[in-house]
Amino acid sequence: MSWDIFDEIQKMQEEMDRMFNDFFRRPYYQSQGPGKSLQESGERAAPRLREAFTDVQETDSEVIITVELPGMSKEDIQLNITSDRLEIRAETKEEQTETKGDYRLSGKRYAGFYRSIPFPVPVKAEKAKATYKNGVLEVILPKKEVTESRNIKID
Predict the structure, then answer these.
(1) pLDDT, tens digit (0-9, with 9 covering 90-100), for 13-44
(2) Tell me, which fold does domain 53-142 have in CATH?
(3) Could you read off the pLDDT of 111-128 as tens digits, one per residue?
(4) Is the full-model pTM beyond 0.70?
């Protein structure tokens, strides 16, 4: 039996794929090991942004993007439109401190969403309209007109 370098490369690629899949699947705190807190490890947990649930619909004249952003206010949402995609970022932070008598109650809450959505067809970004109601963001983008094809004479 002879040694084949391509078999070794295939094994390395499979092992790297498995390692990356495990890394991104596990929550950050589990990578610290059993019984080891973030304070003991000397690291801080970075807040994670999750992808917002989205729906992209294409009609004859427009592209409609619907995004669920529960718990956000209109002021927490940032939209950025480029020629080929829509980027949505929403972040909210809350701090609550209450002192009554001999006890003090303190709490923090963070929620974040991020999504980058490519457009299925060219759109007129300057004519985009966005509305936000009851935790649902709706962005309507009119399509660019498709220019008619024509024959070109070759000289």
Answers:
(1) 988 888 877 766 655 545 544 444 444 444 45
(2) Immunoglobulin-like (2.60.40)
(3) 788 888 899 888 998 999
(4) no
3-state SS, the chain, equals CCCCHHHHHHHHHHHHHHHHHHHHHCCHHHHHCCCCCHHHHCCCCCCCCECCEEEEEECCCEEEEEEECCCCCHHHEEEEECCCEEEEEEEEEEEEEEEECCEEEEEEEEEEEEEEEECCCCECHHHCEEEEECCEEEEEEEECCCCCCCCCCCC
Give the C-alpha separation, 151 to 135, whole Å: 50
Q: Which two three-digit tokens encode residue 84?
A: 């080929």
**Residue at token pair 């949402």:** 77
Structural tokens at position 5: 């370098």
